[in-house]
Every structure is written in C-alpha cells, then in structure tokens.
Design a protein that fits this description.
By secondary structure, the protein is of the alpha/beta class. The protein contains ten helices and eight strands. It has one domain: TIM Barrel, CATH 3.20.20.70. The protein has an eight-stranded parallel β-barrel, surrounded by seven helices. α1 runs parallel beside α10 and α5 crosses α7. The structure holds phosphoenolpyruvate. The site of phosphoenolpyruvate (PEP) has 14 residues, from β8. Phosphoenolpyruvate binds next to β8.
C-alpha cells in the first residue's frame, strides 16, 4: 500500500505562508512513491490550489450539511468548490473543543464523500483512558461509530492519534502503535471484508523527521498525520523521505 503523508496546519497560516506551502508541494514532487497532502485553514485553500497546481490541498473539518443557517461553518461542498480534495474529520481538538461526537463525525465523513472529498477520520484515546487500560475499547468504539457503512471504496482513511501524543513531543511506543493499528485493521476487515484491508491507517502524534522511519515501518502504519512538523518544508520533507525509503 502506498504511504499517505498528510500535514495538518491547524489554525496556522495566512497569505504570507503561501510560499511555504509552495515549498512543501515542490518538495513532495520528488517522492513519487508516496501520496501526500496538506490540510490548511479554509481561508487558504483557494489561493494555495491556484498557486501550486497539482499538489493535494485539504480542509481540516466540514459541516455535515450542505448549506443553511450555520454561522461560521464550512460545508464539504464549499471545501471542494475552493479546490480541496480531502478533509480531516473528527480531529481530537474538535472532538474536545467543539464537543463533536462520533455520530457528528460519521455524518461529516458522509458529507465529505458526497462532495467528492477523501476523508481522514480521526480516532484516539486520552492519557487517562490509556493509563486505565481502556485505550483499545475507546478507540474501537470511536471507530465503529465514526465510520459510515459506505466507508469501503478507497475514499476514506483512518488516523489513529493518541490525544496525549498530539503536539506534546510524546510519541506512542512502537508496541502500542502496532497493537492499536492491528486492532483497527481487524475491525475494518471484519466490518468491510477485503475492502477493509485496503483502508489506510495513519498514525498521528508528534511524528517528525527523526521518528518517522521507525513509526512508518510498523505493521499497518500506512502513513502519518502530522501537525507541527508539517509547518515547514524543512521539517516535512524528511518525513516524506522516510516514507519513500520504505516504499522501495
Ligand atoms: C495533529 O494535529 O493531528 C498532530 C498529529 O499534531 P502533531 O504532529 O503536532 O502532534
């Protein structure tokens, strides 16, 4: 399976940063065995797409409905209209701060699909849940309820992001990552049959140029969702290089 490396700029970036997006897109061209994308603030999608052409640009969330009285929200169709080809849904920062639940996230994934976008559906446990031995249960429950029945068919991937590893510099141990990704893979295969084996499972949580090779080599780690280390080409490119080296 081709590795999928996706940057998440979160609430960072204005027109001043278009040059950096261009640098990332240009670096990505050298890694032909890797799929890559950058999820930027909605305000930058249109300009980024116009400026860089063929590199995949995505959003970081979408509303579950196509239009209506939802002040401040952006629909999947609007993301697509701006030129996005994918969107993250269910990032833990939104699950926490916006109180998004699995049912919302499932509806958002379906909305993304209906708008022709690839969806990255995020799941992950808190530190408290991991320390109390509930990580597998919590993540598999999130997975079951956040994925629509239509999830097979190559329009969606899953990102396992332990909440305590996001933006903290703390990375989940290789055994824990392999155990979780293996459990997610089994759940996908059980629910979607052979097509469940084709759904990519990304790891997210303080991935960087130093730890990417080890993480991406683990069983069922089909790529990475990267926050901090995606903000510059200098930091993002070594992750692409690690993924490319594993693809040979
Ligand atoms: C993320 O935002 O999804 C993420 C994984 O962030 P970071 O790489 O900074 O931990």
């Amino acid at each position: 399976m081709r590795k999928f490396i996706v940057g998440n700029w979160k609430m960072n970036g204005t027109s001043r940063d278009l040059k950096e997006i261009e640098a990332i897109a240009s670096a990505a061209q050298d890694y032909v065995s890797v799929d890559s994308a950058l999820c930027v603030p909605a305000t930058l999608i249109d300009r980024a797409v116009r400026q860089i052409g063929s590199f995949s640009i995505g959003g970081q969330d979408c509303h579950m409905l196509t239009e209506g009285a939802f002040t401040g929200c952006v629909s999947a169709e609007m993301l697509g209209d701006a030129g996005a080809v994918l969107t993250i849904v269910g990032h833990s920062e939104r699950r926490t701060a916006q109180h998004e639940c699995d049912i919302d996230i499932c509806a958002k994934a379906e909305a993304a699909h209906a708008a022709g976008l690839h969806a990255i559906v995020c799941v992950g446990e808190t530190l408290n849940e991991r320390e109390s031995g509930k990580a597998l249960d919590v993540v598999l429950k999130q997975l079951g309820a956040s994925l629509p029945d239509t999830a097979a068919g190559n329009w969606l991937c899953v990102a396992y992001e332990p909440v305590w590893a996001i933006g903290t510099g703390r990375v989940a141990g290789p055994d824990d990552v392999e155990e979780m990704h293996g459990a997610i893979r089994s759940a996908l295969a059980q629910r979607f049959g052979e097509e469940g084996n084709a759904i990519r499972i990304l790891y997210g949580g303080s991935m960087n140029g130093e730890n990417a090779a080890q993480l991406l080599a683990l069983d069922n780690v089909d790529g990475g969702l990267i926050g901090g280390a995606s903000l510059s080409a200098a930091k993002f490119e070594p992750i692409l290089a690690a993924a490319e080296a594993l693809s040979k």
